[in-house]
Amino acid sequence: MALLEIKELNRRFGGLQALSEVDFAVEPGIIKAVIGPNGAGKTTLFNVIAGSLPPTSGSIHFQGEQISGRRPFQIARLGISRTYQNIKLYSGMTALENVMIGRHIRGRAGFIAGMLHLPWTWQEEREIRAYCQELLEMLEIGHLAGVEATSLSFGQQRAVEMARALALEPQLLLLDEPAAGLNIYETAEVGRLISKINSQGITVLLVEHDMSLVMDISHEIVVLSFGRKIAEDVPAAIQQDQEVIKIYLGEAED
Ligand SMILES: Nc1ncnc2c1ncn2[C@@H]1O[C@H](COP(=O)(O)OP(=O)(O)OP(=O)(O)O)[C@@H](O)[C@H]1O
Ligand SMILES: [Mg+2]
Questions:
Q1: pTM of the model
Q2: Mutate to test the pocket of ligand 1, among 20, 44, 224 (most ligand atoms within 8 A of CB)
Q3: What is the pLDDT of residues 19-53, one digit of tens each?
Q4: If you measure from the C-alpha of residue 146 to the centroid of ligand 2, how many angstroms do you get, rounded to a whole number?
Q5: Where are the domains positioned within the chain?
Q6: Which residue out of 11, 43, 229 has the highest number of ligand 1 atoms within 8 Å of its CB and is therefore the one to mutate?
Q7: Residues contacting ligand 1 via CB (< 6 Å)
Q8: How far, in Å, is the centroid of ligand 1 from the Cα of 39?
Q9: 88-169, what's its fold?
Q10: Is the pLDDT of residue 12 over 60?
C-alpha cells in the first residue's frame, strides 16, 4: 500500500485553478520530488496535504486513511510533518529550543504546562531535551544547540527546521525548497542530510528548484505545470521528457 495517495485533487483560489486533478502516490521509504516552474502549485499541494488549506475537491489518503480536510495538528499527529519555503524559526530562542517546540505537540503534558514548569513535567522535559539534542547531532549541528537559531547560517537554519519537523517522529516529511538561498556547498550538504534522514526509514516528499539536487537524491519525480501533473517518472526519464524540457526552456526565456 502507498504511504500517501492523492486522487483528483483540486484547489481553486477564486478564478485560479492552483491544483487541477492531481493524482500521484508516494511509496513508503522513497524520496519523491515535486518540481515545476514558479506558481505551478507545489506549495499549495503541501499546504493541502498538511491541512493548512482545505482542498476544493479530491482525496488524500495517508496509510490508507482519508485525511483531506482535517486540521494541521491532526495530520501532524498522524505522522506528516513539514518545513516551509520561507524559514520559520523563532528568534530569541536557541536551535535546541526551536526543535523542542516541534516535540512538545507530541508530549503528554503539552506546551502550556511545560511553559509553566509544572513539576510533573520535569521528567518529560528532560526526555524531550535529550531527544531533540540527538536530532541536532544526527543533522550534524549538535554543537550549535545553544546558539540563537536566527543567528545561524541559512544552511544551519534549514537543518534546525528539519530537526524540528523530525521531532514529531513523522513517517512522511514534506520539505518545501530546502536549498532555497543556499550556496552550492550548503546545497550539497542539505542533500546529504536529506538522504541521511531517508536512510533512517523516513519517506520524503521534496519540492525543490535545484535540479542537480533533485536528480541526485530523488527516486521518483512528479512534474507540475499550472496546477496539472504533466509527468511522473524516475529522474533519468524526466530529464529526457520533451514536455518537461519545453516548460523549463520556456521559463529560462522569460
Ligand atoms: N492563499 C492563496 N490565495 C490566492 N492565491 C494563491 C494562494 N496561494 C497560492 N496562490 C496562487 O496559486 C498559484 C500556485 O502557487 P504556489 O505557491 O503553490 O506555487 P509554487 O509552485 O509553490 O511556486 P514557487 O516555485 O514560486 O514557490 C500561484 O498562482 C499563486 O499566486
Ligand atoms: Mg512554493
A1: 0.92
A2: 44
A3: 999 999 999 999 999 999 999 999 999 999 999 99
A4: 31
A5: 1-79+174-254, 88-169
A6: 43
A7: 13, 16, 18, 36, 38-44, 85
A8: 5
A9: Rossmann fold (3.40.50)
A10: yes
Q: How confident is the model at residue 125 (pLDDT cuts 50, 70, 90)?
A: confident
Same fold, 1-79+174-254 and 88-169: yes
| pLDDT digit string, tens, across residues 154-173 | 999 999 999 999 999 999 99
Which residues make Cβ contacts (< 8 Å) with residue 99, sequence separation at least 6?
132, 135, 136, 160, 163, 164, 167
Instruction: List, edge to edge, every strand of the sheet that includes 65-66.
Output: 16-26, 4-13, 57-62, 65-66
- Does the pLDDT of residue 202 top 80, yes or no? yes
Ligand nearest to C-alpha 47: 1
| Band of pLDDT at residue 248, cut at 50, 70 and 90 | confident
> Which residue minimizes the CA distance to atom 25 of ligand 1?
38
The CATH code of domain 1-79+174-254 reads 3.40.50.300
